[in-house]
């Protein structure tokens, strides 16, 4: 069992759209032998269509089931790469996937630097102290100065970075990278794989081979490396694993340059599955009893079948097919006769799985995102917070004879995490919150096709949803009465205030000092750590 755990590396690749996540994923899978040809991973192609083409949405849903988990073996390790959607409107899905990994690789475009989505995704990683390796991509293009990029990474992502490789030139003058760790020189050949003869082991920076190969660029490299080694802090695996220090690699995914090096280092330093917090105690992967949580739910492509696939991350013990497991929220025991694992793009039924693995469970409506399965112990894994959506719209029923279908449909779609559902306390209006417009099209389409319910959305003026708590019931009651119209409950019955602006939140905080406003639904953990 310990051997199985120490072999697993479960991670995700994240980036702002277009930085090269899909390309890098594909190259890693090629190295891992999980796919044979480039172009096999197309799950993010939907983002390239500007209009919301429904067929594309459907196709995206179908494809992303197949690519949700991509397992491959490399250097004796079993690597699970969890896919995250390329489209920014599906960012919530990515946030949740980040709760199921042990580390991430962040891809940054060397021309664009740190972009909006990079910052948001890294915020989630920082909350969970997830170890990060950074891959600065597209070195074959004229990008920004590498030192400037490092500065930007540190300042915008509140993270310490340490380059493990260093680029020699950029764009048309890009010659390759110098590996600061192994002190080897990798020469760039566009379009190819780094082959053995392109890697030159050199005896330090004074080696004349450097001058032969790089000519004028050699002097600049020596200066740069000296600066990094004197000014920067040395690389430490412990600091990386604690999420405090991110090693940085430079390369070009489309040219397959720097990718193998990245993968080699990843397998050397990335953490094996670790312990995870629950509401009652820390669960360690070596424990005998099985436990895991659902971080993603996928609807069936065929609208005649409502069954879904729930993706479960195993946190401890050994999962066995046909064993009885306890669904903690429903207080109910369930047996799974056909749990699936994923190898490359093939899905197959498995008999057992270990911590770090992600398995697909067929579900007929038992699961919500965040649900925990155990061998009987009552505990709930933490770390799947809801963040405030960015767009809020009221759900308006267009066919009163179908109100039941509509209610059921929106309930199930929000269980899948397509959007967040808030119910107004006074008046029972239903508000749907998302991070992008595209979800409203998806919801409307799916309600109509899968639940036979017609709706429209009416935009609401909400700046942000704030989860509200208060130790004084009287003060809470006063606040709720005074602000009744904007008080909602989320799916779990927590109180949420729909704030008009950040100025209003501030002024309410002054007027109601006993009320606490939280940015995520995971306020319970925040409160615990405050105490
Ligand atoms: P994403 O998943 O992060 O959104 O990015 P994706 O891999 O789809 O890459 C976005 C675009 O950047 C693609 O071009 C891809 O070929 C290109 N790209 C990826 N890595 C590199 C690199 O190292 N150098 C250069 N110059 N380009 C790179 P596209 O034209 O949008 O799509 P495609 O038709 O090439 O697939």
Question: Main attributes?
Answer:
531 residues; alpha+beta; Rossmann fold; Alpha-Beta Plaits; 3 domains; 8-stranded antiparallel β-sheet; 7-stranded mixed β-sheet; 15 helices; disordered C terminus; binds guanosine-5',3'-tetraphosphate
Task: Give the topology.
Blueprint: H1 2-7, E1 8-15, H2 21-31, H3 54-66, E2 69-74, E3 77-82, H4 91-98, E4 103-109, H5 116-127, E5 132-137, H6 146-157, E6 160-163, E7 165-168, E8 176-179, E9 184-187, E10 199-201, H7 208-214, H8 217-231, H9 237-241, E11 245-250, H10 259-269, E12 276-277, E13 282-283, E14 291-299, E15 308-316, E16 319-320, E17 324-327, E18 332-335, E19 340-343, E20 346-349, E21 352-353, E22 358-363, E23 372-374, E24 391-397, H11 403-415, E25 420-424, E26 430-434, H12 438-451, E27 455-459, E28 464-470, H13 473-482, E29 487-489, E30 495-499, H14 502-511, E31 515-518, H15 523-530
Parallel strand pairs: 1-3, 1-4, 4-5, 5-11, 6-11
Antiparallel strand pairs: 2-3, 7-8, 8-9, 9-10, 12-13, 14-15, 14-23, 15-22, 16-21, 17-18, 17-23, 19-20, 24-26, 24-27, 25-26, 25-29, 28-30, 28-31, 29-30
Helix pairs in contact: 4-5, 11-12
The chain binds guanosine-5',3'-tetraphosphate.
